[in-house]
Design brief:
By secondary structure, this protein is of the alpha+beta class. The protein is built from four helices and two strands. The longest helix has 19 residues.
Length: 188
């Protein structure tokens, strides 16, 4: 934890220099600038080392207490430094029922996860927060005008598809089987 005493004196001096009406301290807004000195070595932090050491037993306890179903849960966690992009800690768990589905035979940072609508959920929540609910009634072409004018009946008519319909997968825009994202079918 950073020493707050080192910040208090300059803040008090600043507060004295301004009238109370123009300067009201609050805990809701952090001080601008980096939270840690730029040479802060996260992997060498005592607290990070303790967290890394404690994490496997925490996961084991979640399995033992059946908070997470051990035989149906698979995940990979990779904690990395945004400064160096180097991995600080990795942890994986593969349920027995999922082991045969791993094409490389191991669950690791190279595994492709099919997360379904989780990523779409973040997008929708962000839209709600930034633009409000009204945006979901707007046609997609309001934001992507280059999609306008498609009159071929065999193609998608984007003027008729709203942002909300697209976000809820009710826009009539189907998947394309040519994508390599789909598993291939064995045909004998």
């Amino acid at each position: 934890m950073l020493h707050r005493a080192g910040l208090v004196l300059p803040l008090l001096a600043l507060a004295k220099a301004h009238s109370q009406s123009s300067f009201l301290p609050t805990n809701d807004c952090p001080i601008l600038g980096p939270s840690f000195p730029s040479d802060f070595d996260i992997p060498q932090s005592k607290y990070i080392k303790e967290a890394i050491e404690a994490f496997p037993s925490l996961v084991d306890r979640l399995f033992e207490e059946e908070v997470l179903p051990k035989n149906a849960t698979s995940f990979h966690i990779d904690v990395f430094s945004t400064r160096t992009n180097a991995s600080i800690y990795e942890y994986s768990h593969t349920a027995d029922i999922h082991k045969s589905a791993l094409t490389s035979g191991v669950l690791d940072d190279g595994t492709i996860f099919r997360i379904g609508s989780v990523s779409k959920l973040f997008t929708v929540y962000t839209l709600l927060n930034v633009a409000g609910i009204e945006i979901f009634q707007h046609p997609v072409t309001q934001y992507l005008p280059e999609l306008k004018g498609n009159t071929n009946r065999s193609k998608i008519i984007w003027e008729e598809i709203t942002v909300g319909a697209l976000a809820s997968q009710q826009g009539g825009v189907g998947g394309f089987r040519k994508s390599s994202d789909y598993p291939s079918e064995n045909v004998d």
